[in-house]
Structure formats: structure tokens, C-alpha cells
Write a structure and sequence with these properties.
Blueprint lengths: L1 H19 L3 H13 L1 H8 L1 H15 L6 H23 L4 H7 L4 H10 L3 H20 L3 H26 L8 H31 L2
Length: about 210
């Protein structure tokens, strides 16, 4: 039981840190909530539950070895997608116009953004898989405590952000809305640059 509690607390700590970390997915949670309401932000927040299952299973089956070149390509593709999201966000002038003119497709956007980010792969290769394997040697239920704690806080923290933004959404509409959205678009451009830089670094380092 002590191993289970320890693993759960570890998962909770890592999940909270990852869930509240700034990045394309967090920015997408905020933008979709502002544009389409809490439900759409909730769908983006839940996207790791869709993307991470095949990622984790794949990493286990290929013995936790994913070439850095693959991670680098994913990161660079993610940067391009983040730029597309930035462009889409910067065009938003009002909540009503955007909501009526386009389909939210929030879950799809969140899945693509998360799947093209190298971060889930790096986390499970360097931390997640080794920890789960080590915990499974001590206890049969400890790995499940880690996984449940991790995703409860990873998703839950983003849901909390979506709920907060949704609660005060009306304060961010009107004249302030386009400026807020363009500020978020700038944040996405910055994240795109960082993802591209990280992807390029993974590719170049693997060649040496």
C-alpha cells in the first residue's frame, strides 16, 4: 500500500506540473473556451486521454526506443500546426462571428496538437515507462496509482483552467476580445518557434 500511495503522489505531482505548464495545448484550451465555451475547452483538455494511449503502448512494444529523428520531425510538424492555430486565433474578432462561422472541432485540434508534440514521447521514454516498469516490480497496483494520479491532474488542471476562463468569458469579450486573441496567437507563435527549435535540435544531435 505504501508503494501505491507513493506512486500515486508522484503521478499527481507530475500531472499537475505538466497540466499547468504553458504550451500549445494549454493555449488551445484557453482559445477554444473563449471562442466556443467551456464544453469545447473541456474537449481539448481531454485530448491527452486519446493520444497518450497509443503513444504509451507503442513505446512499450518497441522497448522504449524511439529515434530522436522521429521526435524531431514530430516537433517540427507540431510547430507548423501551432502556426496554423496562431493564424486561426489571430483572425478572431468576436465570439459570435467565430462561433457561427466555423466548427469548433476542439477534440480533433487537441489530439493533433498533442500527437505532434514531442513532449508526451519524451516524458514516457525518459520518465513514464521507466517509472512504471520499476513500480511494477514492487507492487502490482502501484503503476495504476501513478497513471491515474498523473492523468487525473494532467487533464483536471486544464479542465480547471477552461472552467475559470469560461466563468469570466464575458469579461474578455467586446473590445478586449480581439486583443486577447491576438495575444494568444503571439503565444502560439512563440511555442511554434520553441517546438521547431527543439525538433531541429533532436535531429541535429542525433546525427553526431
Amino acid at each position: 500500500m505504501a508503494d501505491f500511495v507513493s506512486a500515486t503522489l508522484t503521478g499527481i505531482t507530475l500531472g499537475l506540473a505538466a497540466g499547468l505548464a504553458p504550451g500549445p495545448l494549454m493555449t488551445l484550451v484557453i482559445t477554444q473556451t473563449m471562442r466556443h465555451g467551456f464544453k469545447e475547452g473541456l474537449l481539448v483538455a481531454a485530448s491527452p486521454l486519446v493520444t497518450d494511449i497509443p503513444i504509451v503502448l507503442t513505446l512499450f512494444f518497441i522497448l522504449r526506443e524511439l529515434p530522436d529523428q522521429v521526435l524531431g520531425v514530430l516537433g517540427m510538424a507540431g510547430a507548423i500546426y501551432a502556426l496554423f492555430l496562431a493564424y486561426e486565433t489571430a483572425k478572431a474578432d468576436s465570439v459570435g462571428d467565430v462561433s457561427s462561422a466555423s466548427t469548433p472541432a476542439s477534440l480533433r485540434k487537441g489530439v493533433i496538437a498533442n500527437f505532434l508534440s514531442p513532449h508526451p514521447y519524451l516524458f514516457w521514454i525518459t520518465v513514464g515507462v521507466p517509472y512504471v516498469l520499476a513500480a511494477s516490480e514492487r507492487s502490482a497496483i502501484a503503476p495504476w496509482g501513478f497513471i491515474v494520479g498523473l492523468y487525473f491532474l494532467l487533464v483536471g488542471s486544464k479542465v480547471g483552467v477552461a472552467a475559470l476562463v469560461g466563468q469570466y468569458r464575458t469579461l474578455l469579450t467586446g473590445r478586449a476580445y480581439p486583443y486577447v486573441m491576438r495575444g494568444l496567437a503571439v503565444a502560439l507563435v512563440v511555442f511554434a518557434f520553441l517546438l521547431f527549435q527543439e525538433g531541429l535540435s533532436l535531429i541535429t544531435n542525433s546525427e553526431h
